[in-house]
From TrEMBL:
It is a multi-pass membrane protein. This is MFS transporter. Keywords: Cell membrane, Membrane, Transmembrane, Transmembrane helix, Transport. The chain crosses the membrane at residues 12-37, 43-65, 77-94, 145-164, 170-189, 210-233, 239-259, 280-308, 352-376.
Length: 389
């Protein structure tokens, strides 16, 4: 069987492609939902539900599929999830019925809940521990590319052929990545496991070696979601147009995508310890929100976008590599699936926290509150000790 030490990059690239699929699918559709439903006079509540159904499916199902990947091997779960994503996307493209968009989004979310933790587990399985940072940095960069291009390409596809063209493109993309993975990704058979009770699982996931990296991942994801959602609002409030605020969001995503591979390589070379890197990343992201709250105009929003993106780009590969390093190989799927739940909760919780405070005290106070939460997480991270999962 192929070992992590001799797995060439070309055989791991489809895993990065799977990360791109879920990111592009999530943001490409979400960015256009408001306009698509506007023609049907849908309420904001309906829009909120349709935006949440994708993430909701992932929160519920990722631990389930992560455990399944450990039981039968991650490769079949990866291929099955990508195939299911293609089917769900193609079904809506053929029907092109607005009433079915919620069902299609749930199907895509359930499929992503399968192939996303399986891909993360295989990234760890097919890379030696000495290169986990680099591997997860590349994986995160491909996901970041999907987040960056999703709204732009999604909007272009909708303009050219409506939502049916966007879903059809996603179906072709997922099917192509599935075929690529089937041809290139080596087998990773299930490893022997000791019997685990629910109590054993609860104890393992309650250890700092799982909780602290997951907490930092949740905080980083909360920062990205809040930045993407609220930096345009902050810019508009200070008189900036949609072009500048759009550039700011793109800068945030691009900074995160560019920093992640560098952070992973620095970790593997011993130049960036997990604790120092994640703490610095959270502090940098918090500083970005402070700048956004305190400095009006173009300079403030662009500097804050770069700081938030670079800070979260530091955190993500280091936290994933720490999870992989502290997890028994036979439990990687379960750990990655459970950690992804933390990310999804951060994705929802960050904007809720900032928006809830902003509703009563103004947007500046909301952004400052999120900065305080990031600094609190950084303080916890700085005080942690190295502990296995």
């Amino acid at each position: 069987m192929t070992t992590p030490e001799d797995t060439p990059l070309r055989r791991v690239l489809p895993l990065y492609g799977a990360g791109f699929v879920t990111a592009f699918g999530a943001h490409g559709i979400a960015a256009g939902l408001g306009g698509y439903l506007g023609g049907a006079h849908a309420s904001l509540l309906t829009l909120g539900i349709l935006l949440a159904v994708y993430d909701g499916a992932e929160v519920v199902l990722k631990p389930v599929f992560g455990s399944l990947a450990d039981r039968i091997g991650p490769r079949p779960v990866l291929l099955g999830g990508l195939a299911a994503f293609a089917v769900a996307s193609a079904a809506f493209a053929l029907a092109d019925d607005p009433a079915l968009v919620g069902l299609a989004r749930f199907g895509q979310g359930a499929a992503a809940a399968a192939f996303s933790p399986a891909a993360s587990a295989m990234v760890a399985r097919l890379s030696p521990a000495s290169r986990h940072g680099r591997a997860f940095g590349r994986y995160g960069a491909w996901k970041g590319l999907g987040y960056t291009l999703g709204p732009v390409l999604g909007g272009a596809l909708i303009a050219l052929g409506g939502f049916a063209l966007l879903f059809a493109t996603l179906a072709v993309l997922a099917a192509a990545v599935a075929g690529w993975a089937a041809l290139a990704v080596p087998a990773a058979p299930p490893l022997p496991r000791t019997r685990q009770t629910l109590l054993d699982l609860a104890r393992r996931l309650a250890r700092p070696g799982f909780l602290l990296p997951t907490l930092t991942l949740a905080a980083a994801t909360a920062a990205v979601a809040t930045g993407v959602g609220f930096l345009p609002v902050r810019g508009a409030a200070t008189g900036l147009g949609p072009l500048v605020t759009g550039v700011a969001v793109s800068l945030l995503a691009a900074a995160a995508a560019l920093v992640q591979p560098w952070a992973g390589r620095a970790r593997d070379a011993g130049r960036l310890p997990d604790r120092i890197g994640t703490t610095a990343g959270l502090v940098l992201a918090a500083a970005g929100f402070v700048v956004a709250a305190a400095v009006p105009g173009v300079a403030g929003i662009l500097v804050s976008a770069v700081a938030i993106g670079a800070g979260t780009g530091l955190v993500t590969p280091l936290a994933f590599a720490a999870l992989a390093a502290g997890t028994p190989p036979e439990r990687l799927g379960q750990t990655m699936g459970s950690a992804e739940v933390g990310r999804e909760l951060g994705d929802a919780g960050g904007p809720l926290l900032a928006g809830g405070v902003a509703a009563f005290a103004g947007l500046g106070a909301g952004l400052a509150t999120l900065a305080a939460a990031l600094l609190a997480t950084a303080a916890i991270t700085a005080a942690r000790r190295k502990t296995t999962v």
